[in-house]
Amino acid sequence: MLLSASSAFAAEKEVTIKGEAQCAKCSLKKADKCTNVIVAKEDGKEVTYYVAKNEYGDHHLPHKLICQATKKVEAKGTVKEVNGKKEVALASIKISD
């Protein structure tokens, strides 16, 4: 029972992500519709985090800010795997130029 509880906790974890916020459709050409993502370098590889729709993310990372241009960000949130993609529910974000 303890093993299954541990694996449940492993499914979601709070992380800090440093990278570039951008549009998955317009910048990355990885989506059919505009979607906020954060692309970070981890262990020499690019990792794409899809930003979950929630009140905090919608307010503090408006899509119009990153649809046509990328912004450097430092984000904190909870990450989980959804349909084979990493998804982050933002708890905080700092945006710089």
Question: What order do the helices and strands come in, and which of them pair?
Answer:
Layout: H1 2-11, E1 13-23, E2 36-42, E3 45-51, H2 55-60, H3 63-66, E4 71-82, E5 85-96
Parallel strand pairs: 3-5
Antiparallel strand pairs: 1-2, 1-4, 2-3, 4-5
Give structural notes:
By secondary structure, the chain is an alpha+beta fold. The chain has a single domain, classed as OB fold (Dihydrolipoamide Acetyltransferase, E2P), CATH 2.40.50. Helices cover 21% and strands 51% of the residues. It has 3 helices and 5 strands; from the N terminus they run H-E-E-E-H-H-E-E. It has a 5-stranded mixed beta barrel. Strand 2 and strand 3 form a beta hairpin. It is globular. The N terminus is likely disordered.
Short description:
The protein has three helices and five strands. By secondary structure, the chain is α+β, with helices and mostly antiparallel strands.
Query: Tell me, what's the shape?
Result: globular
> What is the terminal separation in angstroms?
48 Å
Order of helices and strands: HEEEHHEE
Task: Supply the CATH architecture.
Answer: Beta Barrel
- Helix vs. strand class: alpha+beta
CATH superfamily: Nucleic acid-binding proteins
How much of the sequence lies in strands comes to over 45%
Low-confidence stretches: 1-9
